[in-house]
Amino acid sequence: IEAIETFTASQGGQARPLHDEEVLQGLLQQIEQLTQGKAGLQQEKEILQQQKSSLQQEKAGWQQEKEILQQQKSSLQQDKVNLQGEKEAGERRMNQQIESLQQATDKQRRDIECLTAEKETLQQQKEA
Fold it and tell me: Which end of the chain is more exposed for a tag (fewer CB within 10 A), N or C?
């Protein structure tokens, strides 16, 4: 009854008996407006839930992509470590080969010096 009195007062009138047709019509209009408003809010809520679901799926997709990229990054870092190891091993082999070639060159130089000295000795003996 208070609601009816408040409604009728808000309409600028005096509180009238419950069976007043005008009051009932006004209340029915308010109920209809509230019902329509509730239906509109329900539709809006459903739309927002669909958008939320869509964003959650998109987030999951981005998360998967992030994980794939992290795996690729990890793999590339391991490849870098492996290549660095291969590079260092190659440099060691190359340095060993250079050292071996230098030793062989030094030996050949000494052999040539010895042969040259022997040749000079033989030449001197021949001349004498």
Answer: C
